[in-house]
Specification:
The structure holds 2 protein chains of 2 kinds. Chain A is α+β, with helices and mostly antiparallel strands. Chain A contains 6 helices and 5 strands. Chain B is α+β, with helices and mostly antiparallel strands. Chain B is built from 19 helices and 31 strands. In chain B, α9 runs parallel beside α10 (384-402) and α14 (519-531) runs parallel beside α15. Classes of the chains: A alpha+beta, B alpha+beta. Chains A and B meet through α2, α3, α4, α5 and α6 of A and α1 and α17 of B.
Chain lengths: 161, 797
């Protein structure tokens, strides 16, 4: 079980083939092998949410799954969501509301926020706080983040109405 | 409140029509962080870089009998295994004392333990390998033989004769003691209608920066130069200390600080493992990277606030507070931290207790003791939460005793807003505070009377809500009085260099640092405002000892007040230089010209005369067309340090509204209010977000956060699942208001705001819980306010 294993996956729309050790987690694979350093490692035990990425459309803690488990999967990171323009409005709301300070939690926070907004078009503040409850932010106290997500939800709802 | 136009330049940045001061403008460069394009130390990779993992002691106190690294060294990928004595060949030990903290003592500390470990988590060997995983594998094969020694864990018995002395050379476990006596305390207590006493207990907690401490050290033997990439709040301090202990000149050390994933005082110190990483790079002649994992963070990032403080207050039936007395005890681990020392927090507690109030009678004793736990040192709002919780807890107990409303007793005792300048019983000098204006504003914002009515109505339905109030003062803009006078090479001045580039844009180099507070933004706002240049044309460079002026950095709420004033003064000089050149080109005088929106205009009628990019083109490429004798200087540097006041004190007041579930002991925070006075506000949004973030750190201390040690000195909750931090679901919305009393010591008038939230949040919550529990006669003076603590106080368990 210690020999490298061949994996193939889709990362931000690009096919990636690699040989990885079975013990390598997805966060370290993204950061160290693919140099996608926007995925942050805060606790390495699935609590802080800084390493949140999307795998086959679902948000996961990339420190809690192995790279080999992502074989054949489609993985999206903050770099992918940024370049595709999917969260441009959400990022603008974070900027306008100063919903980040050090920024270390922010990629994971944006991932979680976008996940909520895809599920629920106009979540209330309680729902937003609940959905972010697995993403730790030490700087902001969360209120600005909740505000930014709430305003993004309203703006999106306004566009589709 | 008390702005002073008399002292201000008529062309002050505060008055200019296009000023960014006082405006909400987005911070520059946030997109980088939001798109995952930041550069934190943990992201840095260099050619030939090796990774270090530290093997750490599982014991709180033990003799190192022997270390056998032979098996580890044979593991593929291992570069070296280095022990304390081996590393001592390239780095000297240190002692964390400062001369102005009289009597403070500590023992020499080494980068890696030599012969003995003094806390669980102290490094005993460094394993350097081609990857972190390889180094971790190899670390499991380093055999260390320990002989366990008696441990000192309980600070309340650390000074008992029967307790072992941790450092025999020091004679006892007392690191520092300070006594203070002002006024006539005994007579005041004797003459009081009521005297109330309580013991306040504070949990040991820590900063939990989301990015763990990280360092990449790169010794280039060919250049004889060490480059340190570190997420530090004080790059020049790191430069000085690294050079000192590695036997280098400061010019041989460059410290580069890119993005920092949270700091809060955790990253203002220099840790043994960081020193070891610098030394390993020098020893191995290659870049070495250290990134703490989360368990290491809990075991080695400084802890804070482990205090037991006995407090006493005297009060008359009319509400007049007659005296305060405290006896504070704190345990700091086995060493005083370097280079800022671990006596500062206790010293601050003595300074700050009773600070908002009129009474002149104040007696204090603070003792700081050694113990076999992780080191303790300055964390956001150093000492303030202790002092505020003790003071405000006592004030509420006094009010309860005489049956007075908590707001009313404060109204009757807070220093009057027109009584300044004045001096506190502990000798603090206050330039201008605004306690009464702040309290009045808070009462209005929270609709105090309606909230009291709601509380009473809910009580009849067995719903127990409480209101807690906490006034506070905050130390900001520290002068050399903080560290410099004690011999620490930690600068209290900051510098800013501003230059106009060849296309009319502006580059500022500042010695303050950015960890998310908005240092970059406030610098750009000030410089843009003074120069008349739009912010999109202002670029700020910080965090690099090779490329910024010398200065202190960002800590102790000093960035805006000190670094901001340096930016203002530098920009004023550059503005004058630009206008002198413009006057020469335009055959005008500088007094007749102004700069607005990147264009030199007539001061009188605003008619555009020459754009800055055209002026820069002439200066840099066609100086031959300038009149004879003109030598333009389109770069200016200014430094600033407060001289008149050792600290620019700020003040504020917080309130908490919460509900206690008396069956489960859970506390639900419903709302929190803050009114504070940080003088001139450069960017209201940034100030408010600093306060909100600070409040939430204080709320964490109030309800959740505690490093739980067992009697053998083992930290039992060193992970993020067991050490609870505030998450979004439990936090309330926080309303913020301001009173503005600018400091007259600077033209900018800004004081600090970074620690105000943390200073008073726990006190407000504790007072609110006690207010909620009033019908039950339960009083709690300990944090964190866990369900267990509350149910115990209620007699339910």
């Amino acid at each position: 079980m210690t020999a490298p294993i061949s994996i193939s996956l889709d990362v931000n729309g690009e096919r990636v083939d690699a040989f990885v050790l079975p013990r390598l987690n997805l966060a370290d694979f993204l950061r160290e092998h693919l140099k996608l350093t926007g995925t942050h490692v805060g606790c390495e035990h699935g609590v802080c949410g800084a390493c949140t990425v999307r795998v086959n459309g679902e948000i996961v803690r990339s420190c809690l799954i192995l790279a080999v488990q992502a074989h054949d999967a489609s993985v999206e990171t903050i770099e992918g969501l940024s370049d595709s323009g999917e969260i441009t409005d959400l990022q603008a709301a974070f900027r306008d509301r100063n919903a980040l300070q050090c920024g270390f939690c922010t990629p994971g926070m944006l991932m979680a926020a976008q996940d909520l907004l895809k599920q629920t078009s106009t979540p209330d503040r309680e729902q937003i706080r609940e959905h972010l409850s697995g993403n730790y932010c030490r700087c902001t106290g969360y209120q600005a983040i909740v505000d930014a997500i709430e305003s993004t939800a309203r703006a999106r709802a306004g566009r589709t109405a | 409140m008390t702005s002073g136009p008399d002292k201000r330049d008529p062309l002050s940045v505060l008055d200019r029509p296009n000023s960014y001061i006082g405006k909400i403008v987005p911070r520059p460069n946030l997109d980088r962080l939001m798109q995952g394009r930041g550069l934190y130390v943990s992201d840095i990779e260099l050619p030939r870089m090796a990774h270090v993992v530290f093997l750490r002691s599982p014991y709180a106190h033990a003799k190192i009998v022997g270390i056998d690294a032979s098996a580890a060294k044979r593991i593929p990928g291992v570069v070296a295994v280095v022990t304390g004595p081996e590393l001592a060949a390239v780095i000297t030990p240190w002692v964390g004392v400062l001369s102005h903290l009289k009597g403070l003592k500590s023992a020499p500390q080494s980068a890696i333990a030599i012969d003995r470990v003094c806390w669980q988590g102290e490094a005993v060997a460094a394993v350097v390998a081609s990857s972190r995983a390889a180094a971790e594998d190899a670390a499991e094969h380093v055999l260390v033989e320990y002989q366990e020694l008696d441990v000192v864990t309980d600070m309340s018995t650390a000074l008992d004769p029967a307790t072992p002395v941790i450092h025999a050379s020091l004679g006892d476990n007392l690191a520092f003691e300070r006594n203070h006596n002002a006024g006539t305390v005994d007579a005041a207590f004797a003459g009081s209608d009521e005297v109330v006493e309580a013991e306040f207990v504070f949990g040991r907690h820590t900063g939990v920066t989301l990015e763990p401490r990280s360092v990449v050290a790169d010794w280039n033997a060919a250049e004889a130069r060490l480059t340190i990439y570190q997420g530090t709040q004080a790059p020049h301090m790191v430069q000085n200390i690294a050079a000192l202990h590695l036997g280098l000149r400061e010019a041989q050390v460059r410290v580069v600080c890119k993005d920092v994933g949270g700091s809060f005082g955790i990253k203002v110190h220099i840790y043994a493992d960081e020193m070891a990483t610098y030394a390993l790079s020098k020893l191995l002649r290659r870049p070495v990277k250290f990134v703490a994992d989360r368990v290491e963070s809990f075991n080695t990032d400084i802890h804070a606030r482990d205090h037991r403080c006995k407090g006493k207050i005297g009060v008359q039936r009319d509400g007049t507070i007659t005296a305060f007395e405290i006896d504070d005890l704190t345990g700091i681990g086995p060493y005083s931290m370097y280079p800022r020392t671990s006596a500062i927090e206790a010293n601050q507690v003595v300074n700050l207790v009773g600070g908002p109030y009129v009474t002149r009678n104040y007696r204090a004793r603070a003792r700081v003791v050694f113990q076999n736990k992780n080191v303790m040192c300055q964390y956001r709002a150093v000492g303030h939460p202790i002092a505020c919780s003790v003071t405000e807890g006592l004030v509420d107990l006094a009010a309860m005793k005489i049956g007075m409303d908590p707001v009313e007793i404060r109204r009757r005792n807070l220093i009057a807003d027109d009584a300044y300048p004045c001096t506190s019983p502990s000798g603090l000098r206050f330039e201008q505070l605004s306690h009464h204006a702040a309290l009045a504003k808070l009462v209005k914002m929270m609709n105090y009377d309606a909230l009291r009515a709601e509380q009473a109505a809910l009580r009849t339905r067995n719903i127990h809500r409480g209101i807690g109030i906490a006034s506070f003062i905050e130390v900001t803009n520290p002068s050399a009085a903080f560290y410099g006078v004690g011999g620490a090479k930690i600068s209290s001045q900051d510098g800013v260099a501003v230059r106009l580039d060849a296309q009319g844009s502006v580059i500022c180099q500042t010695s303050i640092t950015e960890q998310g507070q908005g240092s970059e933004s406030l610098t750009a706002q000030i410089v843009g405002s003074v120069l008349g240049v739009s912010m999109d044309r202002v670029r700020v460079i910080l965090g690099d000892t090779d490329n910024t002026p010398y200065g202190g950095g960002t800590w102790a709420s000093r960035g805006a007040g000190i670094g901001g004033e340096a930016a203002l003064q530098a920009a004023k000089v550059l503005r004058k230089n630009i206008l002198d050149v413009a006057a020469a080109i335009l055959q005008s005088t500088s007094g007749e010209l102004d700069i607005v929106n990147n264009i030199v205009v007539n001061a009188g009628d605003g008619v555009p005369r020459i754009e800055l990019n055209e002026l820069a083109r002439v200066v840099y490429f066609r100086p031959d067309t300038l009149p004879p004798g003109i030598q333009p200087e389109l770069m200016a540097t200014r430094h600033f340090v407060p001289r008149e006041y050792p600290f620019a004190f700020t003040n504020g007041v917080q309130a908490s509204w919460l509900e206690v579930d008396t069956d489960t002991g859970f506390v639900k925070l419903l709302k929190h209010w803050v009114v504070e006075d940080c003088g001139t506000i450069i960017n209201p949004q940034l100030v408010d977000e600093q306060i909100r973030g600070g409040v939430v750190q204080g709320l964490g201390a109030a309800l959740f956060e505690k490093c739980i040690y067992d009697e053998r000195g083992q930290l039992t909750n060193a992970n993020m699942a067991d050490y609870l931090v505030p998450m979004s679901g439990e936090m309330p919305d926080i309303d913020i208001g301001h009173v503005v009393s600018p400091t007259m010591e600077t033209e900018l008038g800004a004081k600090g705001a970074g620690e105000a939230g943390t200073a008073g949040a726990a006190a407000a919550v504790t007072n609110a819980v006690n207010d909620a529990l009033r019908p039950f006669g339960a009083i709690i003076t300990e944090i964190p306010l866990t369900p267990q603590l509350i149910l115990t106080a209620l007699g339910k368990i």
